[in-house]
Amino acid sequence: MQESKKMGKKMNVAVVGATGAVGVEVLKTLDKRNFPLKGLRLLASARSENRRLLFRDEELPVEVLSADSFQGIDVALFCAGAARSREFAAAAVAAGAVVVDNSSAFRMDPKVPLVVPEVNGEDVRKHQGIIANPNCTTTIMLVAVKPLYDISPIRRIVVSTYQSASGAGAKGMDELWTQTADVLAGKPAKPVTFQHPYAFNLFSHNTTIGENGYNEEEMKMVNETRKIMHDDTIQVCPTCVRVPVLRSHAESIVVEQARKVSVDEALAALSKAPGIKVVDDRAANHFPMPNESNDQYDVLVGRIREDLSCANGLALFVCGDQLLKGAALNAVQIAELLV
Ligand code: NAP
């Protein structure tokens, strides 16, 4: 993906949660895409008071987040968890900022657009002060399936995810590093952040299970897909799993469409779609892998096959850097649409 073009208006931007896993990637993305910044304010908790973070050769102070943090701010990128978004987004909007929120706080609020620029970028225009960034797993899936939907509407999606430790933030990555080192040293893996041992293991996603047996992450995939695609008829059956990978989520996706779409047709559409890189080399057995999607803006899509069990079905395997396309990059792209 190319860097953003030079844009006219310059913006004062606040990054809420600048010290976290997503916040750090937001700073890198603003720099790399040459976002038109007038000023940059870094906000985090009292734990980060006196810290400074490097941005374009300048050490910027981290300030403690408060309701008074947003004077003069045009865009506030929130990446500090849903509780902080619920507490402080209104103050940011009252101060005149547009909030782009990475948390789940407002995603299903009918007044709040839920936006993946490659899928429904035009929804940004409907905002009333807050724009939500979707769940990372959903974003990665929808970037991959939207070009197929444009050929023929998708009726049903069966998706199984292989989600990385960094999806749970800095503490998730620490847990995987620490347990792996402990197990290799012959010590037991001690779960702290996650309920189950993580090193050399995998387990059902760590969010709460609802009455229907699906966990919160899975229900986000169901509900957010319908909202972003403006199609309440899409049926989604997700199974979300944490795997011992540090970064990038992988997803096995089967779509059932209104009509049969051939592998060649799908490949042609995916190859020219924005935000996608096709990795589909059958001869070399080379398909999307987290190691190759890490630090990449594009979602890798491959293993494109006819579904042998269903007339109008296609199977795909997808990998995307959830800290970037699933969070930081998507938020910065939304901010670019605001410019
Ligand atoms: P993280 O690594 O744990 O970082 C959390 C950030 O929030 C830190 O900067 C932390 O500051 C700040 N924070 C925590 N409590 C605060 C408080 N009381 N006041 C001010 N700042 C506070 O988490 P993350 O993974 O970056 O996730 C951030 C948000 O993005 C969450 O809403 C998450 O759901 C969402 N998200 C994450 C991913 C992902 O892949 N990780 C993907 C999509 C969306 P201190 O350093 O000072 O504690």
Q: Can you describe what's shown?
A:
By secondary structure, the chain is α/β, with parallel strands linked by helices. The chain is built from nine helices and 15 strands. The chain has a seven-stranded mixed beta sheet with strand order 3-4-2-1-5-6-7, sandwiched between helices. It has a six-stranded mixed beta sheet with strand order 10-8-12-15-14-13. Helix 3 links the parallel strand 6 (98-101) and strand 7 (130-132). Helix 1 crosses helix 9 (324-338) and helix 4 (136-151) packs parallel to helix 6. It is globular, with a radius of gyration of 20 Å. Mean pLDDT is 96; it is low at 1-7. The structure holds NADP nicotinamide-adenine-dinucleotide phosphate. NADP nicotinamide-adenine-dinucleotide phosphate is lined by residues 17-23, 44-45, 47-48, 65, 79-82, 84, 102-103, 136, 166-167, 169-171, 322-323, 326-327.
Summarize the structure.
This protein is 30% helix and 24% strand. The chain contains 9 helices and 15 strands.
Short descriptors:
binds NADP nicotinamide-adenine-dinucleotide phosphate, disordered N terminus, single chain, 339 residues, 6-stranded mixed beta sheet, 15 strands, 24% strand, alpha/beta
